[in-house]
Amino acid sequence: MKDSGRTPMTKQILPSILDITPDKFMSMLTTFETTGIKALHVDVMDSHYVPSLGLNDRLVAWLHDHTKFNLDLHLMVSDPEAVSKLVIEAGASSVTFHHNSIVDSFNLIETIQHTGIQAGVALNPGDSPELLTELLPRLDRVLVMTISPGRHSNGFLTEMKQKVTWLSQYRATHKAHFVIEVDGGITADTIGTMLKAGANEFVSGSYLTKVSDPKSNIAKLQERIADYVHD
């Protein structure tokens, strides 16, 4: 596992690589590297837990062997125990699974962390953060979905700010160490809401990968973070 260098106070952009077309894949990796991106967000979907198919462990292995990026794996699958083993062996830096996809979250968190990998739990838009109260002291990451996972986006869900605020307050009160990550509809117009609420990591997909000038949009997100940190 590559050294992430991350703490709950670190704020960074994680490009989601799911929608990068094959013809642009290598050039996008170069763009990410030259703009200071340190980690990639990799969605794995099984067409069962969510209606879409996502990326696989072979791509994770290739990225691990041929790039310097940390690999943030987001498992939208019905069997996260089995899939987590595959992506950890392939070189994942962190593995996040959905709270409602497994009966024994404690065991899977422990299993992931035992391998030296960061463990996270994701909350769907309809999930309350209080569901994770017993897990939070053990977690490295909480992923708050700001769109419905694995579906065509209906836009950024501003209401998710309340979850991030609750998690941030819990983290401060209990001196917990988990990172708060947000995923879905993150642009220069929406990132400020989540920065103010206490989020640390910002997954951005089509805003970076489906535009003619991704460097410009990466810079805009990084500027929003810098402005917030320096305020």
TrEMBL record:
Its recorded name reads: Ribulose-phosphate 3-epimerase
> One GO molecular function term?
racemase and epimerase activity, acting on carbohydrates and derivatives
- Transmembrane parts of this sequence: none
Instruction: For this entry, list what GO says about its biological process.
Output: carbohydrate derivative metabolic process; carbohydrate metabolic process; generation of precursor metabolites and energy; nicotinamide nucleotide metabolic process; purine nucleotide metabolic process
Q: Which UniProt keywords apply?
A: Carbohydrate metabolism, Iron, Isomerase, Manganese, Metal-binding, Zinc
Subunit arrangement?
Homodimer.
UniProt xrefs under CDD domains? RPE (cd00429)
Q: State the needed cofactors, names only.
A: Fe(2+); Mn(2+); Zn(2+)
Species name: Liquorilactobacillus oeni DSM 19972
